[in-house]
Design a protein that fits this description.
Keywords: Lyase, Pyridoxal phosphate. Its cofactor is pyridoxal 5'-phosphate. The protein is an alpha/beta fold. It has 15 helices and ten strands. The protein has two domains: 224 residues, Rossmann fold; 92 residues, Rossmann fold (3-Layer(aba) Sandwich). The strands form two sheets. Strands 1-2-10-7-8-9 form a six-stranded mixed beta sheet, with helices on both faces. It is globular and about 55 Å long.
Length: 330
Amino acid sequence: MSELVTLEEIRAAQQRLAGVAVRTPLYRVARARLRMKKIAEPEFDIYIKAESEQPIGSFKLRGAYNMMAQLSSEALRRGVITYSSGNHAQGVAYAARALGAKAVIVMPDNTPEIKKAATLALGAEIVIVGPASSERQAKAEELAAQFGYTVIPPYDDAAIIAGQATCALEILEQLPSVDLILAPVSGGGLLAGSSAAVKLSAPRIQVWGAEPELAADAKESFETKRLVKWPAEKTTRTIGDGLRTQSLGALNFEHVMAYVDGIVAVSEDEILSAMSVMLTATKLVPEPSGAVAFAAALYHAHEMPKVRKIAVILSGGNLEPQLRQTLEQR
């Protein structure tokens, strides 16, 4: 078993990120606004942690910068490389620009154009491969060996997990009375970090993951207590492009099994409905992956313990304009 991240490492990441990552707001959702959207009024208050308000539009800046800020000047001079469907790509590109390093990003060919354009705008070089997460990882490792780049993994690394954990630390500071925190899960960096931060600080608080039914490998791994991998042709079916990873990272899985209380899976219709509700009832902008935790709170509360206050992490807001227009007309 690998060493799990410590609270000290998470707090050090929080200090490292000061002035780089935004301390994002935690918004309470007005129940009356949910009624207007014909959503059954929940028996609990919902709060949204708006990571969409980070400079890159997602939480991924936290882990990427935390890891890269600890690299040597020589490693930064050689450059960094990662593999990502979009948001981690932007996190690495943003951090590389801030630290004066070259960034190369291996992206799948089904990455939304808005995320490709944003990554290029931050000065990164993009290499396109097929849709499988395993394919882009293999290409990144090949280029790293060839050119001496440092690989910045999207989730399976202690420094990445510690950086993502700072999001949950902020929730605990902003709402000490929270009873349950919901985080989306794909590779597991955010859920692993959030659960570690919470259970090491306030173990009474529940931490749950949420993912699409069409890419529910993490739920299967959690329930069977063994790390499973789904084929790319299954996980790429979901509209949640940031949640198409084929399995949890090995270190992430260890954190999930140690600290997470449960994982729920939501349907594609529920994701789209949650996005529509968030757009019109809160004015926050979610991308599909970012709305999964909100969908779990709206439609799967019966699968979780009865509580008074739930905080959901809106992990990203890089929404394609055409999809936004369609949802706002629902």
